[in-house]
């Protein structure tokens, strides 16, 4: 089994890596356009961070985390999501003391033990954006518009933005009472996990994957009917801004998101091209999380976006991703003496920022040219003893077949044109 990747993981091959690089570059560019800076956090954290931050009644904490004790017997968990780690970093590094809002983005791998399926692996990759310090609805709208802008720049069509408000903790107290009453009337049909959640956090029953619990939840009370006046005013303001900037949306009162830290605005962006309608991006406010993890009350909002699911959506719409990793030139050699000059010329060109490759397998000239074509070299150069002596060779455009005689000393300038 040592030659097989663990279940739920996947190798990223050179034939596909250019897609990821392109998508990552568009995400980075979009975030910078919106005034966000990159943050990088550790792959693992103390387990308590996720138990308190994500919520100990969520599926993530109860069923999906990769948790182990290290050699000092400390409980450590591979991060199942990005937000809790960013909040920990925000507190530990005193970022709250800088000018606010603090606006950050990240590109990370995450780990959840769940049944692997298309676009959902045990090691998966995620883009994320987090903003701290402002409770204004304008920031909600900015976060949503950033996600929409990024997906539009990739060329995705048939996207559906849905928003909801899940209110503040006071709203949810009233709502939880209504949920308990409703689910107690169906108690015997609930799965064992949801029976345990009923007292601790009935909201999580709405996320249960059990078909029976899902069917019961269809007629459960709607949280939007229980939000207070302040939360409704906030939600109305978010809608007004989205209308003003021209972003289309629907209201889905059943969106609650699967993590406990969310409050007020929550949203999902769905793709209609990944089999059944499926979320490619989701996020919302988490105004109480900084305080929950030991900081002073600090409003915050963010989103997460799974890269594997995003690529499925791009592939399903047959969107061509440009390969920007094309090799500038392949230098073929004929003879031992010529190969020495090829190595020297390649080194000089590479130092000038030209991407170059040459033969390391002692192939025939025909095999070298076939290889140059296979790897997509834009140009080729053949160097034999005559070319080595003259320090001049013909550069061939691999697409048009046009040939140009160029001195070795001028080749860097030729490729930079």
What is the terminal separation in angstroms? 50 Å
How many domains is the backbone divided into? 2
| Order of adjacent strands in the largest pleated sheet | 1-5-6-11-10-9-7-8
Spatial extent as radius of gyration:
27 Å
Fraction in beta strands? 15-25%
What is the CATH architecture annotation of the largest domain? 2-Layer Sandwich
Specify the structural class: alpha+beta
Mean pLDDT over the residues: 92
Largest sheet: 8 strands, mixed
Feature tags:
single chain; 417 residues; BirA Bifunctional Protein, domain 2; Rossmann fold; eight-stranded mixed beta sheet; 16 strands
Task: Describe what this molecule looks like in 3D.
- This protein is α+β, with helices and mostly antiparallel strands.
- The protein has 2 domains: about 15-170 and about 225-315, 2-Layer Sandwich (BirA Bifunctional Protein, domain 2); about 330-415, Rossmann fold.
- It is about 40% helix and about 20% strand.
- The protein contains 15 helices and 16 strands.
- It has helices at about 15-35, 45-55, 60-65, 85-90, 135-155, 170-185, 190-200, 210-215, 230-245, 290, 305-315, 335-350, 365-375, 385-390, 410-415; strands at about 35-40, 45, 65-70, 75-80, 100-110, 125-130, 160-165, 250, 265-270, 280-285, 300-305, 330-335, 355-360, 380-385, 390-395, 405.
- The chain has an 8-stranded mixed β-sheet with strand order 1-5-6-11-10-9-7-8.
- A hairpin with a 5-residue loop joins strand 15 (about 390-395) and strand 16.
- Helix 1 runs antiparallel to helix 5 (about 135-155) and helix 5 packs parallel to helix 9 (about 230-245).
- The model has no long low-confidence stretch (mean pLDDT about 90).
